[in-house]
Amino acid sequence: MNVQGPSISLPAGPDMRTVKRVLIVKLSSIGDVVHALPVSAALGDAFPHIEISWVVEQMSAPMVEGNPYVKEVIVLPPEWRKNRLSTGSFRVFGRLRQELRAREFDVAIDLQGLSKSAIVAWASGARYRYGYDWLRELAPYLEARVPRRRESVHVVEQFLDVARFLGAPVEQVKFPLAIPAEAAESARAKLCEAGIAPERPFLVLNPSSGGGGNKGWGAERFAALLSEIQSDPGLPAVMIGGKGDMEVAAEIQRLAKRAPVSIVGQTNLKELAAVLRDCAVHLCGDTGSAHIAAALGTRVVSIFGRSNPARLAPYGQEDLAIHHRERCALPCLRFHETAPVNSKQKCLAPPPRCLAAVTVEEVAAAVRRAAAGVCAA
Fold this sequence. Notes:
It is a single chain. This protein is an alpha/beta fold. It has two domains: 21-165, Rossmann fold; 181-371, 3-Layer(aba) Sandwich (Rossmann fold), CATH 3.40.50.2000. It is 36% helix and 12% strand. The chain has helices spanning 30-46, 78-82, 87-102, 115-123, 139-142, 155-165, 181-194, 219-228, 246-255, 269-278, 288-295, 309-312, 353-356, 360-371, and strands at 21-25, 51-56, 72-75, 107-110, 128-131, 144-145, 203-206, 237-239, 261-262, 281-284, 299-303, 321-322. Strand 11 (299-303), helix 12 (309-312) and strand 12 form a beta-alpha-beta unit.
């Protein structure tokens, strides 16, 4: 992975036996925060005496809340995120800096690698500040880059390289994603109300494009896929997503031979996690729910366009990530693994050729592989 700009020298790691407090800075997005969860577990298991705090943006905070390895979740004030150059934002940041320094952090770990996260790590006052391999914008000037191991291809492993540098052995990759009992009960009630019987295996579909304009596979193909797998594997389908996904969900219901039920816009993140934990298979694009499901041990069939699945597929489930990156070519080169980081090329207008090449038949085959044995009973 290429790095923009210089990086301050990598100092010798601190003696973790004397370290008392560690700050993890991973602000967003939802899937990226899930990717970073194993770092807290690795450090917590290796150094149980250490108090870990985590700075995160409000939207992604539920992914960290309840984490048994994290003593404190510090939610970044939204005013500073919206306009960091305003007078009000400077005041908000000043208060945040004061609060962070009062905690006397020894080590700050920036797993975002951008200006906004590096500034938060710097504001903590930690003597040791580290970022993972890919530092951008101002980050190389404010923290030391921990180079990735050659074998660390997936972003989860790249994040864990920072924990390894600090002396954590990472014998097992753990995702400490907590789901409160009340969230699980609420999720089950919403599924029952939608017509999904308790204990019956079901498929969860997230048709969202993941916030990226060129990541969506399209309502027509999702509807055709559901029609293709109605009898085999025969799992009832439930659609999830945010309120912004209600239009595409309604279009899928209109087009599918047997309309899937929908709880789109009806769940918070903890309830969504409970639904994903309890389903048999999750089908989605390159979006956050893929990583939540994988972290909870659910089989995930994911459809990729511009993103590199070797690095960003649901962790441990690269075999179920469907893509045609061999179709990447100018002007799509920016998102190919061989593209220079400073390339200004853009994807084609939606859908890009790599995503358009993914067929209903190959996704259906992946769903059948993922569901193998689930419906046997």
